[in-house]
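[step 3/7] inverse_fold.run input=structure_tokens len=275
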């Protein structure tokens, strides 16, 4: 039986992670856009990987369930890389909550029922979740454990409560880390682990949309004033993901690792602190 790695969101971060953890395995490159998945597959096939594509919409349980069926048809799902998402400048509040928050919850449920023993997952969250002020213990608990189908009905996510697309994104990304923490307990029952990475600004098409969008100036300032003083690359996130998904990460599950060049540190204790 082949070992399978599923990438949901075959963008730059997803591909970089998959290249590090998929040698000798079958890679399913899934994306909302068939042409994106296909473009990724060309590169993978030209560089020694066994890869196929799938069209999947993270915001649809039906679609994710079909992807699970496709993936398990190839073999044992040993790796799940969730790197699909929309950023604050790319979509309205409802779409951000549906894709980034609800979609991640469903994906963890769906793949958490088939992940193979010894398997591992990684969910790409964001530094944005770290800038959201603390929520109450009850809100944290609700985001972590409310059944996925009821999540978007939580009062804290109601129309008047979510101020704008950035707020929606921050809430979704905070929820991703909380959700992974709760799901790590369930995944462990199958002998599997799951963690979140919260990247800072990493140059990809999504980040370039932010840098050239309405919040571009703020993002450029963030890079300039960050302790590391530059944006990150998808490969730097992938190195971390490889550690988390591999045997060196065997003691790590339910964790969220911030990799942001120190932007969050500066936001709380440095030059990026709100005046
Ligand atoms: N690049 C950054 O600076 C940065 C920082 C923090 C977090 N992130 C997160 O990293 C993840 C990956 O983004 P990236 O930077 O690699 O961007 P990217 O644009 O290269 O890839 C994102 C991919 O997600 C796909 N996608 C969008 N909506 C989808 C849906 N409903 N179903 C399935 N696929 C969908 C897109 O088609 C695209 O291929 C996102 O969750 C993003 O929020 C990125």
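[step 3/7] decode complete -> sequence:
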């Amino acid at each position: 039986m082949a070992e399978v790695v599923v990438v949901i969101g075959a963008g730059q971060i997803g591909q970089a992670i998959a290249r590090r953890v998929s040698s000798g395995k079958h890679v399913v490159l899934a994306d909302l856009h068939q042409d994106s998945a296909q473009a990724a597959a060309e590169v993978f096939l030209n560089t020694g990987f066994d890869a196929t594509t799938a069209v999947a919409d993270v915001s649809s349980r039906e679609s994710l369930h079909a992807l699970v069926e496709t993936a398990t048809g190839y073999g044992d799902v040993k790796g799940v890389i969730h790197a699909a998402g929309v950023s604050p400048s790319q979509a309205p509040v409802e779409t951000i909550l549906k894709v980034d928050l609800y979609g991640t919850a469903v994906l963890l449920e769906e793949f958490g029922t088939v992940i193979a023993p010894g398997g591992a997952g990684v969910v790409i969250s964001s530094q944005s979740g770290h800038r959201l002020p603390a929520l109450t213990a009850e809100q944290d608990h609700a985001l972590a454990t409310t059944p996925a189908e009821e999540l978007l009905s939580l009062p804290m996510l109601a129309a008047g409560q979510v101020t704008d697309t950035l707020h929606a994104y921050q809430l979704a990304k905070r929820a991703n880390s909380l959700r992974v923490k709760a799901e790590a307990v369930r995944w462990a029952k199958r002998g599997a682990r799951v963690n979140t990475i919260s990247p800072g600004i990493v140059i990809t098409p999504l980040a370039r949309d932010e840098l050239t969008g309405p919040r571009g100036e703020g993002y450029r300032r963030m890079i300039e004033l960050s302790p590391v003083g530059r944006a990150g690359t998808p490969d730097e996130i992938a190195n971390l993901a490889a550690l988390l998904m591999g045997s060196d990460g065997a003691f790590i599950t339910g964790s969220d690792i911030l990799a942001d060049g120190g932007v969050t540190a500066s936001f709380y204790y440095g030059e990026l602190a709100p005046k």
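[step 4/7] annotate
The chain has one domain: 2-202+232-265.
The two ends are 57 Å apart (CA to CA).
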